[in-house]
Write a structure and sequence with these properties.
The chain is built from 15 helices and eleven strands. The chain is an alpha/beta fold. Helix 8 links the parallel strand 7 and strand 8. Helix 7 runs parallel beside helix 15, helix 9 packs across helix 11 and helix 10 packs across helix 11. The model has no long low-confidence stretch (mean pLDDT 95).
């Protein structure tokens, strides 16, 4: 077939003008036009060729056909499910997760199921109006099925995964299992609510329909840990590069993590062991990333730590040094209730279990969120909105290509639901014009400096303790106008999220493992003093460890649990 170029001389001159120079007509213009047309021919050839599905990502064979359905509202009271399924591997290779049910965040590919990334169908659908169906299992999905788990469906997430609160999904807010109408945190909102519902059902007898034992979420600024904090469960952001991100929609490659959510440490350890290890496809993984055969047996390590024989006078936490990160207890927006609960409980419970607790200062922590913003905001739209590759060989989900460039309809849809994403879109061209790539590159270098600052602290302590979310869960903003008044404004929606990730985002840019641990309950700022006991909402404490020492973070959480039991028995 004869190739007919679509690039004209006029387009060549227009491109040059936008770059700030002029190409003379004649041989120079003809040469550059020919070169552009050659590149065009290569792109059109690839565009028309069949796609390639890597064998490692081919959907795992399941006992039954991969069917899916949308849950009825009555069966989805928290709006936590997106699509339901019942996937069990036909030939699992281990029993690590046998009997466990799992929800997968709706930005992670599940073969045979649609993916919406929390946004509107019209921003994802092709001309037929059909949602894109995944032809692959993400690496973590294949591994979960191979470990004997049952995947019950995809869990709702925030619109383009760009919110630390849970009001922005196209299908409506995801509700906190502890109190309907309140945030469950984002962006892994549905996964957290479905796991937390198990606890609430046991304690309060409230029915939630079908829920799960385990959840998998994504974390770029706290999107596993913040929902865990608001929901009263455990949520781990592993060391950067420990768990492959292959098959998940990226928010920013330098920040992308996938992590487990569960109601027990043992379940966190088991799911981490299954998810972790080099997959040969994810450029986020480094020479430090363990091969699958070299992944630590986290459940056994945790069990051995809990059950090891103690010498006379020794306690479970003996020898462990816990540092209360001074600056994390001074961040703007941190409520007195959360500050006092985390600091007092950490001192009391870790000390009761034999650990040494001391205050430690990392002044650069105050700039952590600023570095996070400068290092990622200029380019973030390219990854999450435009689906661009990172520049390193990678395997992006082949079925997802969101609408780009945006139009007025897209702007209005997103402004009404998640104006933070519109801000991300606007930030790219604005920051590029006024600052250029040099400042973003400098922010990356500052991330190395921030990592070094934390690493210096880890020469004095084994674990850093911070508050996780700065408050307990707050009510959702009003998403629609009604007889009682207008919908919440753009700033009403955005102001609720300001400061939520101040203590979590820094560890995304540095790559340290961080775990949100349930730390008690408190009353929200909008709750009256005569609220019932059911209105108490969870508080989360964040434990941060040295890079690649995720096992130490889990051990520290076990020490915390033992100290809490000893304190309650005293």
């Amino acid at each position: 077939m004869t190739f007919r170029s679509r690039i004209s001389a006029e387009e060549l001159h227009d491109a040059a003008t936008k770059l700030g120079f002029k190409i003379p007509d004649g041989p120079e213009a003809e040469a550059y036009l020919h070169l552009l047309q050659s590149a065009e021919a290569a792109m059109r050839r690839i565009q028309s060729d069949d796609d390639y599905i890597h064998p490692a990502l081919s959907p795992v064979e399941t006992k039954d056909p991969r069917l899916y359905w949308e849950p009825a509202a009555a069966d989805n009271p928290m709006n936590a499910w997106k699509h339901r399924c019942q996937l069990i591997a036909a030939n699992p290779t281990s029993t690590t997760l046998r009997g466990k049910t799992v929800a997968i965040k709706d930005n992670i590919s599940i073969g045979g199921l649609p993916m919406t990334v929390g946004t509107f169908a019209e921003l994802l659908c092709d001309d037929t109006g059909a949602l894109p169906i995944s032809p692959i299992d993400a690496s973590v999905v294949s591994r979960v099925l191979a470990a004997g788990a049952t995947i019950k469906g995809s869990s709702n997430c925030e619109n383009y995964c760009a919110s630390p609160l849970s009001y922005s999904a196209a299908s409506g807010p995801v509700h906190n299992a502890w109190l309907h109408g309140y945030t469950s945190g984002g962006s892994s909102s549905g996964s957290a609510s479905l796991v937390a519902a198990n606890i609430v059902e046991r304690e309060q007898g409230a029915p939630f329909g079908d829920v799960v034992d385990l959840g998998i979420g994504g974390d770029q600024a706290g999107s596993v840990r913040i929902p865990a904090s608001y929901s009263g469960i455990y949520g781990l952001k592993p060391t950067y590069g420990l768990v492959p991100y292959t098959g998940a929609v990226s928010l920013a490659p330098m920040l992308d993590h996938l992590g487990p959510l569960a109601s027990t440490l043992e379940d966190i350890a088991s799911l981490l062991q299954v998810m972790a290890g080099y997959d040969g496809l994810d450029p986020r993984m480094t020479p430090e990333s363990p091969l699958r055969s070299q992944v630590q047996n986290h459940p056994r390590l945790l069990s051995d730590f809990r059950n090891r024989t103690l010498e006379d006078g020794q306690k479970r936490g003996s020898g462990l040094k816990i540092g209360l990160l001074i600056e994390s207890f001074e961040v703007p927006g941190l409520s007195d209730e959360v500050r006092d609960a985390v600091r007092q409980a950490a001192r009391h419970c870790f000390t009761a279990a034999g650990a040494e607790v001391l205050d430690i200062s990392v002044p650069m922590h105050r700039d952590g969120s600023l570095i996070w913003t400068a290092a990622s905001r200029m380019s973030m739209s390219e990854w999450v909105c435009q689906g661009k590759t990172s520049g390193f060989l990678s395997f992006l989900p082949p079925h997802i290509q969101a609408r780009w460039p945006p139009d007025q309809d897209m702007y209005e849809l997103l402004t009404a639901t998640n104006p933070a994403l519109v801000n991300v879109m606007l930030s790219g061209p604005f920051l590029e014009k006024h600052f250029g790539a040099g400042v973003e590159a400098k922010a990356h270098r500052k991330a190395f400096e921030l990592r070094a600052a934390y690493d210096q602290a880890f020469t004095q302590v084994d674990i850093l303790v911070t508050p996780c979310a700065p408050t307990v869960a707050m009510p959702h903003p009003k998403m629609q106008a009604d007889a009682d008044g207008p919908a919440s404004s753009i700033m009403d929606k955005l102001s609720a999220a300001i400061g939520v990730t101040t203590n979590t985002a820094p560890f995304n840019v540095t790559g340290h493992p961080a775990l949100s641990v349930p730390c008690g309950f408190g009353r929200g700022p909008n709750m009256s003093v005569d609220s019932t006991s059911a209105a108490y909402l969870p508080i989360g404490m964040q434990l941060v460890g040295r890079r690649w020492e995720d096992a130490t973070v889990l051990a520290a959480a076990a020490v915390w649990e033992e100290g809490r039991l000893l304190s309650s028995d005293a």
